């Protein structure tokens, strides 16, 4: 049937007295021109029809997925497939007298069909990715990496199909032949395979989400995760630079995720004052009376003084020397002062751990560590709260006759 239709114009040209060779060439040119024009008009018609349908659906439906399909021009890519199907059907008629050229033309059409199908999948996956990112439960998930995995599989199938078309063999035979070269394939796609496995583990174990603040010292990253793909994780550092980390590094190396702090009730303050050891001493009764003027320790000093005096009387402690019996120290009273100060501080979360502890003495002095949690987790506010607390404590030290340990400073040869 195709041969009969393809030779209608050829027979007419012969009847006009034209030679067979020229009639055959002119028949090919004219039929090819007609088929290409029809294919172009078909493409335009299908595109107009699909655009009208897609726009109308996008306006009427509450789900905005179709809006992303229109934005990424999925209907336009689908419209290009119909002319290719038309050409695949009618090209044998055009090349009725040129079988070798016709076979090459059909191979080209088949390859274009495969590539156009891949283009449709690529636009569809991009639309799906952008749509899922608008949903709250997928907003912090590495959707891009999964879309890339699907696209890689699509490209692999597409390229295998193209090779099968060019070599005129079946896809399964081609895959079997690739089995011997599997090591090379694994080497080529090593990063993609590692990234795919890593992205699955990261998602299943909920190790990293988009928007998390992570610190990865090995790669110099300290900021928010803005993108997770199959091969890389992009981190926008606080200085607005971008650090790119291999996805598989998230499961092979150690990094710090600050999400736990961000979703908790506070941000940890863990800092110590290094107290000069020589400034620590027992308190006399006069010292205790003087320190009672500090309101935060007034009640504490009154109660502890009574308890200590009662204990010393009961045990007959000789208080001519302060070292005998039980005694208050300026360091211990200051530790209680810091505890009371933090408990009354409005910026400290009282429901979380609050502790003032003395650490092991060092050659530089005795550390008094403050371990508490700021109720405000924002970085700049957190730093302000911590600075405000330590400003006050540093200024309060002299009232307890305590000194901060510092390295000696020499001016003009004098200590």
TrEMBL record:
It is found in: Cell inner membrane. Its main location: membrane. The chain crosses the membrane at residues 28-50, 78-98, 104-125, 146-165, 171-189. It comes from the Bacteria. Residues 191-259 form the Mechanosensitive ion channel MscS domain. The keyword Electron transport does not apply. GO terms for biological process: cellular response to osmotic stress. SUPFAM superfamilies: Sm-like ribonucleoproteins. The keyword Chloroplast does not apply. Keywords: Cell inner membrane, Cell membrane, Membrane, Stress response, Transmembrane, Transmembrane helix. InterPro entries: LSM_dom_sf, MscS_beta-dom_sf, MscS_channel_2nd, YbdG. GO terms for cellular component: plasma membrane. One of its GO terms (molecular function) is mechanosensitive monoatomic ion channel activity. It is a multi-pass membrane protein. PANTHER family: MINICONDUCTANCE MECHANOSENSITIVE CHANNEL YBDG (PTHR30414). This is Mechanosensing system component YbdG. It comes from Flagellimonas hadalis. The lineage of its organism: Bacteria, Pseudomonadati, Bacteroidota, Flavobacteriia, Flavobacteriales.
